[in-house]
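Q: Could you fold this chain for me?
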Amino acid sequence: MKKAFIFLFSLVMAIGVFSQTKTNKSNWSITLEGGLNMFDGDIKQDYNQILPNSVMGLSYGGSVEYTINPAWSMGVEYYYLPVKAEGFYYSLKNTMHNADYFMAINVLKAFNSHSNSKWGLWATLGIGMAAYSVDYQTTIDGPVSINSLSGYYGLDYDQKFSDGMSLVVPVGAIVEYNLSKSFALGAKFQYRTYNKDNLDGRSYWGVTNDYLGLGTLQLRWKINAKNHDHVRNISMDQYNNVDLNLNSDIDAMQNKINALQKELDDLKPNMGKLMNMQPAVDLIPDMKKRITDLESRPVAPVAPVLTPEVDTDSDGDGVPDNRDQEPNTPANTAVDFWGKAIKAYTIDESGIYFDFNKSDIDAAGFKAIKMAADKLKADPSLVVEVRGFADYVGTPEYNTKLSQRRADTVKNELVTKYNIDPARVIANGKGRLLEPKREFRGNRRCTFFYDK
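A: Sure. Below is the predicted structure, expressed as structure tokens.
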């Protein structure tokens, strides 16, 4: 029976992993668990004893879970539960294997659709089967009168069997914290109810079911969460495709309205002069300038300004001469959007850094890209250059291509994920930096340069 439980659990785990790979969805997760159990049955307890007269047993198990949405999930779980109890005239050893299906609800996200908390508070309810073996031994020779020992009527005698079966209903709670996109650490607490009264070998009383308390620590692996948003990591609003940027878009539009209102207020005194039929010849140039400024506010096509190919680059710093304000910078000089020399770079959260010979974006990089996207959305007049670099190792030709791939990857993320107009973004691969002449993460980067 033990082998059958383990086989079924392994089969469900395999189905979960393979289906995740084929569908490329981030709904599946796997947990490994370990902790302690305490049996609650017909073993004798003193009248003033709170906890059952059993010995806590080391238990372990795991689960395969499909998270339907950020608030609901379902899955299967398996536990190995050794039970021990000792009294002044008996000893009990019970080995149980439990497998059950369960449903769970994350109350934090079920009642708050905006919640994107790394914490999860899950309530669980399940139903399954238990296979168990019992070895109950009395320490007094011959049948013992329970009346004389504990106030109950009946006989106590040795009992041993290995083919016990029972239904089990586990009720529990899980407190979980998302350590990263792929892993979470949690504590699970369950009270498991069995429909049998002989899990301790003392079936002749038969007046109540047997129970077991279980507490475990669990490590959860969220499959494929590194490449796709796992539903356990997002809010219900994100899952339902609610536009979370709506408020920021409204704020940006309100800022534009306020700016236009200010321009109108500035024009009112001049309008008053015109209404009073005062000479307006001197006002016309000023009004023309203001109108020109207002007309130029929408973002004009920026490709001629940003694209290096539209003009020569005399000093080879990656900034075309038509916007290079320092056209004679020395070779390998780090420059800003306008070609002005930058003395030093610092590694901070606004930059994107890459592993050696890679153009893959890590979690910190995705965060930096989101910050850039938010900045571009907040001010539609901004344009940005994504400048890619590589460290010294490798040929100049190879590193030029590598730095361009890194810049293209970042631009593609801004365009495809955050719907930034590609005309507002230029990807510019600058090749390798000459100092230091070794592998250096600070040089394997993409840096954002903004302008209006």
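A (continued): The two ends are 71 Å apart (CA to CA).
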